[in-house]
Specification:
Chain B: This is ABC-2 type transport system ATP-binding protein. The complex is a heterotrimer. Chain A is mainly alpha-helical. Chain A has helices at about 1-15, 20-50, 65-85, 90-95, 100-105, 110-145, 150-175, 180-200, 210-220, 225-255. Classes of the chains: A mainly alpha, B alpha/beta, C mainly alpha.
């Protein structure tokens, strides 16, 4: 099947250029840096000894829930940046260099091509993200207290939808623009725009994709999945599907040699 | 019967018409050269035939392709500057594109070995494409175009970027491939076209100005011609000679004036009379016949 | 440093990640013939800027 052929080729490419090594490592760093520094900061302050004797250095007690939400906050910043950066050239780069001219004169379905590229990047990004979150979970259980598997799994799965959305958005812009630099700029501009819109109309937009992490926080605190989380998940999935079909449409109407 | 039928094919970029209504068809088993100077619209034409560009107007029909069949499975295409995945080996790339053309992995691998052998880069099959020389890349490009045994092989300027040795090798390879498939290749060099092709499509400014088999064209355009050289430069004589009633055309090439005429006797008389009257310093006056080169030059200069 | 209450077994993975990133950054650097910008500058960045240096090289340093 053509789809498998392209997915395999992309996998091989990402093995050879070390993405399958460094992306998971970076996601581990992203996931653990905030919980770790939070835990060690008071001790480091103590050790540096900047405080006069007797000063009690009070740090608010950090709950395991707060700690794991720190991981998600870092993901939504640096994780998203890395995801966009490694996806920015996935189609645009092939068109810019001219390889696409050889590939797309073979009887390859355009949608198959897009979908295969999407699949491989989603697998790489989600695998890295899950590895990062597992390491973070391990640290948090040691340092801050227990998060049960029943809490951890839904948290990881729901937030994965946001990363899938970000990847799909980047793929979409890949079909519109030929320059990876433009793809990354436009994608980040779109994400910033969504963030601003969400900040302003937060209360009216409880199903907005950007609301996923705040609903996940509510889920941890309340112990049950709030209906808004289902709503936001549904919207995120729908938008991603629409973006995929939009990519297909754009790609079909485009002239590949241009 | 023809492999491909092209009718009134047009292409504009931002209102600028680059290809102005091409109509032609290709006979199976023939090797056809799309000959024309740079900017004639050759690449645009080939890209339209390969499906990479959408025609502004006109139709392209492949023989044996129903409405459902993807025409891309019938053609092999090599762009002028082929770009590969540099991190792959030559063999890996061939197997990859072979699978994209619906070969199984074993078939693709077998076919890749055959082609690597045929194009002469079998020894480098496991090296990264990034390390290949220009000639090797061109040959890998031909191999990837042939991987799915296309009915029509289209090569865009396959030899123009190569050194003389690479050029020779690729031309010999094309001679070989002619036996297996129909070939359409573009070139701006008449010599390359004469060497391997059976038919010629002469293209200029987006139009086909002449077409037919090489022999037929040679015959058709074999008219009488005078070649003259003057002491102290030929340029000054172009206009006076052009004005003579027996002269069809006159141009300078390789330091000689080429004078195209119909009636040899009449022209000779007229020119020599003119020369005596004005005391022209003729150093060469030769009678010959036009070649395809003259036809090409005539087309390009006008 | 044990008296600081810092458990170094817990921080060891961080150092390992740092080391791994630097090593594969270096390998990738060796394999890249054409970098975006001066090649030697990238070597310095990979070796001296911990964590971020290799990542920057992976994303921006290599011509695709």
């Amino acid at each position: 099947m053509q789809w498998t052929t392209i997915v395999k080729k992309e996998m091989l490419e990402d093995f050879r250029n070390f993405k399958w090594v460094w992306v998971p490592l970076v996601f581990i760093l992203i996931a653990i840096m905030d919980p770790l520094t939070t835990y060690y900061m008071p001790k480091i302050m103590d050790a540096v000894g900047g405080m006069p004797d007797g000063t009690v250095f009070e740090m608010p007690e950090v709950s395991p829930y707060t700690a794991i939400m720190m991981s998600l906050t870092e993901m939504s910043m640096f994780g998203v940046l890395v995801a966009v950066a490694i996806t920015m050239a996935v189609i645009a780069g092939e068109r810019k260099s001219g390889v696409a001219e050889l590939i797309l004169v073979k009887p390859v379905g355009y949608f198959t091509y897009i979908l295969a590229k999407w699949t491989e990047k989603v697998i790489l990004i989600l695998a890295s993200y899950i590895i990062g979150m597992l390491v973070s979970w391990y640290y948090i259980n040691l340092l801050f207290g227990e998060i049960t598997i029943g809490e951890f799994v839904p948290l990881v799965l729901f937030y994965a939808l946001w990363l899938i959305f970000v990847t799909t958005l980047t793929i979409f812009y890949n079909t519109l623009f030929k320059t990876p630099g433009i793809v990354i700029s436009v994608t980040i501009a779109t994400l910033l725009g969504m963030h601003i819109v969400y900040r302003i109309f937060q209360h009216k937009l409880s199903w907005f994709p950007n609301s996923l992490s705040s609903h996940i926080g509510d889920m941890l605190n309340s112990g049950s999945i709030p209906s808004e989380l289902w709503g936001a998940s549904l919207v995120t999935i729908l938008v991603s599907v629409v973006l995929l079909f939009a990519s297909r449409y754009v790609f079909r109407t485009k002239e590949m040699a241009n | 019967m023809s492999v491909i039928q092209v009718k009134d094919l047009k292409k504009s970029f931002n209102g600028d018409e680059v290809v102005k209504g091409l109509t032609f068809d290709l006979t199976p088993g023939n090797c056809v050269a799309l000959l024309g100077p740079n900017g004639a619209g050759k690449t645009t034409t080939i890209r339209m035939l390969s499906g990479l560009l959408k025609p502004t107007k006109g139709s392209i029909e492949f023989e044996g392709a129903g409405n459902k069949q993807d025409i891309r499975s019938l053609i092999g295409y090599l762009p002028q500057y082929p770009v590969f995945h540099n991190w792959m080996s030559g063999k890996e790339f061939l197997v990859y594109v072979g699978q994209l053309a619906f070969l199984s992995k074993t078939e693709a691998s077998k076919r890749a070995d055959e082609l690597l052998e045929k194009v002469g880069i079998f020894d480098a099959r496991n090296h990264r494409v990034g390390k290949y020389s220009g000639g090797m890349k061109q040959r890998l490009g031909i191999a990837q175009a042939m991987i799915h045994q296309p009915k029509l092989l289209m090569l865009d300027e396959p030899v123009s970027s190569l050194d003389p040795i690479g050029r020779r090798e690729v031309l010999t390879l094309m001679e070989e491939l002619k036996k297996q498939t129909t070939i359409l290749f573009s070139t701006h060099i008449l010599g390359d076209a004469e060497e391997v092709s059976d038919d010629l499509l002469l293209m200029h400014k987006g139009e086909i100005v002449e077409s037919g088999s090489i022999e037929a064209l040679r015959e058709k355009h074999q008219t009488a011609k005078l070649q003259m050289v003057f002491r102290g430069g030929n340029k000054a004589f172009i206009d006076p000679i052009k004005q003579l009633s027996s002269v069809n055309d006159c141009y300078e090439e390789k330091a000689e004036l080429h004078i195209l005429i119909d009636d040899l006797e009449k022209a000779r008389q007229e020119i020599l009379t003119e020369a005596l009257a004005n005391n022209w310093a003729i150093t060469k006056f030769e009678l010959s016949r036009t070649t395809l080169e003259d036809l090409f030059m005539k087309v390009v200069k006008h | 440093m044990e008296e600081l209450g810092i458990n170094f077994a817990l921080l060891a993975p961080l150092l390992l990640i740092q080391l791994l990133l630097a090593i594969i950054g270096l390998v990738a650097w060796f394999k890249t013939e054409e970098t975006n910008g001066p090649r030697m500058l990238w070597l310095v960045i990979i070796l001296l800027v911990s964590y971020i240096g290799p990542i920057l090289f992976f994303i921006f340093g290599r011509r695709q």
